[in-house]
Amino acid sequence: MTKRVYEAAKEYGVPAKTVIKTLEDHHIKAGNFTGIDANMKSILDASFKKGAKGEAQRGQKQENKQTGEGTSRKVNETSRQNKNKKQGNTPKQNNQNHDKKRQNQGNAQNQPNRAAKNSQGQNQGNRPQNSHKGGNNAGQNTQGQQGDSKRTKYFGHSQGGNDGNNRNNSKNKRGGQNNRNNNKNNGSRPHTLLSNVLNKGKHNKNKRNQKHQAPVAAEAPKKKNYPTSVELPETIIVKDFAERLGRDVGEVMKKLLMGGIMATINQELDFDTASLIADEFGVTVTKEAPPEDPTEIEEIIDPPETLKTRPPVVTIMGHVDHGKTSLLDAIRQTNVTSHEAGGITQHIGAYQVRYEGKKITFMDTPGHEAFTAMRARGAQVTDIAVLVVAADDGVMPQTVESINHAKSAGVPIIVAINKIDKESANPEHVMQQLTEYGLISEDWGGDTIMVPVSAHKKIGLDDLLENILVLAEVQDLKANPNRPAQGVVIEAKLDKGRGPVASVLIQKGTLRVGDTIIVGTCFGKVRAMNNERGERVKKAEPSIPVEILGLNDVPEAGDILNVTDEKTARSVAEKRLEKKRSSELHVNAKVTLDDLFNQIQQGELKELPLIIKGDVQGSVEALSQSLMGIKSDEVRIAIVHSGVGAINESDIMLASASNALIIGFNVRPDAAARKMAEHEKVDMRMYRVIYDAINDVEAAIKGMLEKKYEEKIVGRAEVRKVITTPKVIVGGSYVKEGKITSTSKIRLIRNGIVVHEGEIDGLRRFKDDVKEVAAGYECGITLEKYRDIKEGDEIEAYEMVEVEPE
């Protein structure tokens, strides 16, 4: 960094004007703020390379300000000559001066009652005579009375001899008493007075030298100890960043500016940017550990020696009516099917069975598309998925959904080909279909276990259970039972007689009656536990499902259960609830895709909630992931709900409550949902192509959403004769209804199937080009970039008409 002249002067220990004078002697014009280049530095180094020389010059400057008593010191020749011209007093003259002063003092003593003003006037009247005679010490000094005044300023009292004392007498108005004190102070021996003055002047000069030299001496060795390594969070403001580096904010902002970053003192820097700037200062940066989330319970790490084998958790998945519940019923040797409404499982149930002395926990997820979300949770808490496929129906849409859920959860699949007792059963066909989804049977060289079973006649059940245990043994499923319990909520409800009830699958540790638990935003003490048969139990070990009572509220399915102390449970639950409420705050105005950009610009919208419904789960997931990937600084995409099936009233109610948009992919709203959407002013958008939905949302966020258009049929014509020319194919047509215009978009329909969509290249009537042909007239039509026209084809002309916003 280039130094200025005044900074260089401090470094060399000389006044700035001395540095400027030295540079002017070398024909270089400079001022206090002139930068020192290499040439200047070499000149100054040669002139001031010895610290003693600089100190002598500082002493010279200070000596010039003093009384001139330091005539014995060595100074340059010019200064000495100037002083000799001003001085000229001898000790003899000094003695005369002192005698004259004593006479004046005697006069003051003899007239003690005279007013101080007269005394002052008399004393002042003596000064010209003394000065004329070369009398007092002030006359001897090179700077005279100026030296007295400066010494009075620095040291609080005058050391300038009789003249200073007389001035004190007049100011203090003390009369003869002060003159007596002056006689005592001055003494009667002139040589003693001179030596005292010289000694005091020398002492004062040294004292002033020390005063002026002290800061320079302190500055020279002073050097800041900058940190060599710092820890930084993910983001940090410029001011805090500078403090951690031990640097001035201006230095940091200068580095940022040099790096092309315009930042304010309170602007946030990300970790990467801060790392680059720190590197410029030679500081190594490490990332700080993120602060602990007060809403999280600390995870307990189980040592390997504490782990014990646990039963596998198996999920039964598959298409509706393929026999999932019947298969589970056959395995459990109980009958629950008759108690289920409509033959569809109403809630996720969990049951435990024994086979060859070993336990297996089964979870039954609903097969209907309305319970897709439940099925997804079921796959995530299980170890093995049993996919039930009917041998007569084969692979169905929900079968594919179940396969995708299991694969996304990383759960191995065992295929149970059910209903093999039916005459129409074709297991080979089912196995062939499953290969299209990556499930290849072991018999065909794959790694998927496929077991033919019949739930009705209980065929192949032992093979299925045996394969489940073999696969569980390969997975080496273990957990620590001797620790506080941790589990997951399968389902929860509010029972009128028992209060909040939750079905929980224990995953780690052992849950006991009396344990204090926290489940999501709920907490409480376990008052009672029931197993799947309704029997009271006192404890539940890993992989055991139980129904618990004692919570203060109803938790949500998928919430994690942890055992902790009451104080922690209450505190964490309250913080989670507060966090949940704050995240659910939203603006009252309904969001529409058309008005989305305006709301973003006005700061009314920071988050865009979406509800996504699709025909199949794969499409819903793909659309959800694509929409979540849209990047915007102004608004964040949030998927409130996604599911498979038609848009229903429940979706409209959720959209109204959460201020969400509904995006439908290959689905339509039912009549009741459409009516409710109009009443609640909920915006619904239907798409058949995923990219159209993504582009619309992106355009809405950026304020470039295109206007709505709808198709309007303007006319139809029938091709009655095809005329072939070297250049084009002309369709001799008859306009049946409406009109055909030269600017219309057209569809070429053959046997009810659209074979081409495009635009009209030419429209003629006889030999003339025309703009339109009305119904009942013949015309010749050529299509742009298309020649495959045949007799009997129908040409449908349409236009895209802008729809006025409601």
Automatic annotation (TrEMBL):
Location comes to: Cytoplasm
**Highest rank taxon of the organism:** Bacteria
Instruction: Describe the location of the Tr-type G domain by residue ranges.
Output: 309-478
Stretches with biased composition (Basic and acidic residues):
52-77
Q: Where is the composition biased (Low complexity)?
A: 134-147, 164-188
The Polar residues compositionally biased stretches are 87-96, 104-133
**Looking at the record, which segments are called G-domain?**
312-460
- UniProt feature, compositional bias: Basic residues: 200-211
Is Signal included in the keywords of this UniProt record? Answer: no
Query: What GO cellular component is one of the record's annotations?
Result: cytosol
Q: Which GO terms describe its molecular function?
A: GTP binding; GTPase activity; translation initiation factor activity
Give a yes or no for keyword Cell wall biogenesis/degradation in this entry: no
InterPro entries for the chain: EF-G-like_DII, IF2_II, IF2_N, P-loop_NTPase, Small_GTP-bd, T_Tr_GTP-bd_dom, TF_IF2_bacterial-like, TIF_IF2
Name of a matching Pfam family: GTP_EFTU
Cleavable signal peptide:
none
Q: Where is this region: Disordered?
A: 50-223
- Gene3D superfamilies tied to this protein: P-loop containing nucleotide triphosphate hydrolases (3.40.50.300), Translation factors (2.40.30.10), Translation initiation factor IF- 2, domain 3 (3.40.50.10050)
Name the principal localization, coarsely classed. Answer: cytoplasm
Q: What does this protein do?
A: One of the essential components for the initiation of protein synthesis. Protects formylmethionyl-tRNA from spontaneous hydrolysis and promotes its binding to the 30S ribosomal subunits. Also involved in the hydrolysis of GTP during the formation of the 70S ribosomal complex.
Listed NCBIfam families: IF-2, small_GTP
Under PANTHER family, the record lists:
TR-TYPE G DOMAIN-CONTAINING PROTEIN, TRANSLATION INITIATION FACTOR IF-2-RELATED
Family under the similarity heading = Belongs to the TRAFAC class translation factor GTPase superfamily. Classic translation factor GTPase family. IF-2 subfamily.
Q: What name does this protein carry?
A: Translation initiation factor IF-2
Protein species of origin: Megasphaera elsdenii
